[in-house]
Amino acid sequence: MDRSKNKHKKVFLSFRLGKETFAVSVKKVLEVLQKQHITEVPDVPSYIRGVINFRGDILPVCDARLKFNIGVHNGDDKYVIIVLDLENNNQRLRIGAIADGVKDVISIEESDIKPVPEMGLKYNADFLIGMIKSGDSFIMILNVDKVFTSEEVDFLKNTSAEI
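and the corresponding C-alpha cells:
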C-alpha cells in the first residue's frame, strides 16, 4: 500500500453559513451539537449568543454568521453548534460556534488549497488559511486559532469564569 498519496492530505469538517461553505481542521473540533437552549449573557459583544452547558462546563457560544458579517441567523432556524478547541497566544479556549449545518468531512490535498486574494487594507484575512474550489463556488478554510483576537479570548475566558 502506497502511503505517500495521503502524506499531504489534511482532514476538515465543512459547514454552511448562509450560502457560503467553510471548513475547519477536524483536529480542532471536539463535537457537533444539535440545536439547544442558549442562555443569554448581558453586556457581551453582539456575535456572542450566550452560554451552554457542555459536559458540566460553561461554554461561550458565538454566532459565526455575525462574527464573519454574513448576516443575522434567525433564532427559529435549524442550526448546529460546533464545539472548537482554540489556542491563542498560549491560551486555550473552548467555544461553541453556531453554524447553519454541517456538510461533510473532507480530505484536501495541501496543494489544492489556494491563497486568499488581497481584498483591500481593511479586510483582515488572517483567520483564513486559504480556499479550495468546489464546483462553481469555493470552500473557505479557517484557521480557528486566529478567528478571535487575544483580547476577545481574554474576555470570553473571563466571562465564562464569572458565570
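(Above: one complete record from the training split.) The chain has two helices and ten strands.
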